[in-house]
Amino acid sequence: MKNNIYNFSLKALEEYFIAQNDKKFRATQIFEWLYRHRVTLFEKMTNLSKKALEHLHEHFAIERLNVEKKIVSSDGTTKYLFRLHDGHLIETVLMRHSYGNSVCVTSQVGCNMGCSFCASGELGRIRNLTHAEMVLQVLHVQSELDATNERVTNIVVMGIGEPFDNFQTVLDFCRTVNFAKGLEIGARHITISTCGIVPKIFEFAEFKLQVNLAISLHAPNDELRSKIMKINRSYPLHEVMEAVKAYLAKTNRRVTFEYILLKDINDTTSHAHQLVNLLRGINCYVNLIPYNEVLTKEYKRTLPESAQVFFNVLHQAGINVTFRTEHGDDIRAACGQLRAQTMKEKKR
Ligand code: SAH
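Structure tokens for the assembled complex are given below, as produced in the milestone run.
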């Protein structure tokens, strides 16, 4: 089978051409065609020699993702359900903000982290996404936006999956979408969200990328966090905080803590005060997230009044806190639900 050209990072493609006794810059040329001009035929790569084109035809394919479903909300939020070559389904979301267009990218088919409130974990991890499958989510959305001369300006790796459980691919993905002669999405406009795989946070810090790091906290103490997030039994809060401090020291970047407000679970003023204590002295933002209720889960969304009280406690303690704005309310199917729902329909 021919190799999908999108599976190559720039470095891997350079190494490939060097091994072929060709020029290293061939890789940059091809990357420009794929990610800046977004061509889908080798013939359109007009600055390549006939010999190079023949070689590409013989050994590579240009294969995009298949759209299984696309739903557009009244606020412009667009959810894509893509079908992969082996039949698995993944979700991607385009969100429109005043500051630009952000794409929420999936990193795995399913997820092994098993957070109790999350729909994505219900089926477990089936496999990691490849470099192609990750970059093509963004490239597909960008190609649609090309029609109106718009750009994808931001990326959040917050779709299905745990990005640090697919570490190398996610790093390569960041480099590819950041490539200056390609999609050119600034590193500071990319956010990776992790449930807190501590050794990977340390490793990530070493790369000193300008990519933003977000930690899914969701509870201010170990007892509660271990109850709702399985990962906390392996990596308790003090270890997560140590890793975050190391990250801050290495990168000088602020981290974001995500905190879903779950009614009567983690949303009392006592929880808010515990959170203030936990985050004391740490250069961070806190993003309070309204829970998207999942049909198969008992958790409920915190009422707006209680959410405001929680917010106020953090704000008054001097923490940079924001509410996450919601997108695509009317199309529901949040956080893995579109996939789960479609899979159930297919089984029937
Ligand atoms: N595995 C990574 C990234 C994917 S989840 C992580 O845990 O960070 C992205 C974010 O959505 C996480 O903060 C996750 O806890 C949150 N999330 C999961 N299910 C949700 C739901 N039903 N409503 C709101 N947020 C949810």
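The chain has a mean pLDDT of 94. The CA atoms of residues 194 and 264 lie 24 Å apart. Further analysis is deferred to the final report.
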